[in-house]
Amino acid sequence: MTARQTAIEAISNHKVASTQDYLENAGEDIYGQYVFGEAAQRQYLAKPVFTKLRRTIAGLESFDHSIADAVAQGVKEWALAHGATHYTHWFVPLTGTSAEKHDSFLSPAGDSATLSEFSGKGLIQGEPDASSFPSGGIRSTFEARGYTAWDVTSPIFLQVEPNGVTLTIPTAFVSYTGEALDHKIPLLRSQEALGKQALRILKWFGNETTSRVFTNIGPEQEYFLVDRRLAELRPDIVLTGRTLFGAPSSKGQELEDQYFGTIRERMLAFMMDLDRDLWRLGIPSKTRHNEVAPAQFEMAPVYEATAVGSDHNMLVMNTMKKLAMRHDLVALLHEKPFKGVNGSGKHNNWSMATDDGENLLEPGNNPHDNAQFLAFLVAVIRAVNVHADLLRAGIADAGNDHRLGANEAPPAIVSVFLGAQLEDVVEQLEKGGASTSKTGGSMELGVTTLPVLPRDATDRNRTSPFAFTGNKFEFRAVGSSAPIYWPQTMLNTAVADSLEKLADDLEKLEPCDFAGLTKILSAIVKANKQVLFEGNNYAEEWHTEAEKRGLPNNKSTVDALPALATAKAKKLFAHFGVLSERELDARAEIIWERYVKVQNIEANATADIAKTMILPAAVKYLGQLLSAGTSKGVSQIFDKVVVLTDQLVDAIHALEHAQHAAHATGSLHAEAKAFHAHVIPAQEAVRAAADELETIVSDELWPLPKYRELLFQY
Ligand code: ADP
Ligand code: MG
Asked: Is residue 421 located within the same domain as residue 566?
């Protein structure tokens, strides 16, 4: 049997094991079990320490170092009670994946005795070598010091593995020079910037009770699951997380029978375990369903404060990957694992809220009459218009390039969808004041036994990159594998900018001068309405229309990244203290560098697989055809395979040549552009010849599991 056949046999014999006693592990009993949350804090900390810590977590006071040792002691007791032997600071460096270095609690105490030790310092501060993480030149091996600092707002948790437990402390990662080296710090800074400006506006509206404004995030996460035994036969999946080769399957997604379809037993078993694992970590996993493409799925949590929700999304992705292995599956989080099949995104649902529980994007029943809502809404519209280039740059990477604009995902043109009701209100506002709000009414279904349904005032638009959905915006162009900190940093900072301008203008008026407010909002709408678009963002006409309106259309990563180097960007991030010019430059360099590295790995893998797996299969098939005689049919096939084999060899040479030429350009940005302009098309040419060979060469000889197997065999 071939390796592929063996893998398929194993799948046929796969039985879904009942791994947990689900009656004893239902949601409520296990929720937050692995989190040092409020209940555990109350149990393990003395009352005054507990109270102080809670106030810090709520953002009401900064961390008081005098309680550090007491908190560490409580955390340690709790962790030991759960079987922990090690602890780690956990952070998200600019590699885009989380990082951790484990220390055991043990310290030797004389002859063959040990103590469990964990000090306040161990809790608050760590000191990983910063030179081995991407720093964009901020750190090097001879000046390598970096620190991790406990982020009190993100809950401490346990990583419970089959053979041991590690106490895990979410931290921020900073250079010895004080510069941010991670995704968390700028996000927290952008959050504070937005909060400060939003408070000014609330004050103007006479709000005396709110002391803090923050943002919430509910990221919907799309992913693929494929059988591990098949995936592991594909070096492209193992190395790049996507297929670099693969002819279309005879059946694809055309029957549209996957979306919301019945979830197959094996996948549901995975999802059951996923939810339980996430609930134990205090991650409020809420929805799960089949997505549009075969073998594609989605989960969404209940929204949380942005820093926590962003950490949680990292943990969701990590948990998916680890857990899939235990189910003999591989979770693919890449934006485009399969050519010709829908890719995966992340929909970041985002809103601004106050610490007394008000959602600032809640329009209420009469949005036209809700001046405060309109002020925040209009500020967001301006932010997206003025900083569309930054929002685009915040979601740019090699993976997402396959998706944006591919008529399955929002295009690279950033626009705002408001829906019929708000579109109308904003139009009225522009003309000098809004006096009515359209309502949805209700729907009779014509069957007595079916209920009359209330109709929303607004339809949905699945094609918009930035859509208002009821009481939040949904940023839908984020890549499925992306850590969401960076796009949210862009958004928060852009909105902080709008709120500041608005606050500056409002503070020149008497508080609650609504006529004055209307004039200001009307002017903002006039100046920014070109970003509003209610139609089909997938349509070709929109591209023409957007160009007429002067909206940026940065189609690829290499087009999008220069936005990070503009004077506008530098000023914006420095002004709000989110990123200094040096930090921003460093970050941009890291993203450029990463783009080149990812493309280079893909080019390497393409050439390698083509030369050592596909070409030999084609040659072997030629041998079989030769020995099969010289009938007309056989000769025709033989000739075709010869032609394609020659094409393949030529294309491999051209790819290697393009790669060398790109390396020789001499500058990082030129290299990235060369990869985009020349290497990617050369790689596509290799794939084209190989994919056609796949449709001709004997199935028995084909070394790579095929799309029909990866997508349908489980
Ligand atoms: P849909 O498919 O309609 O977009 P989902 O249920 O898949 O809906 O996801 C909606 C997401 O939006 C959830 O994560 C939900 O918690 C989140 N969400 C709801 N309200 C808010 C809000 N005010 N702020 C941020 N996120 C929100
Ligand atoms: Mg959604």
From this structure: yes
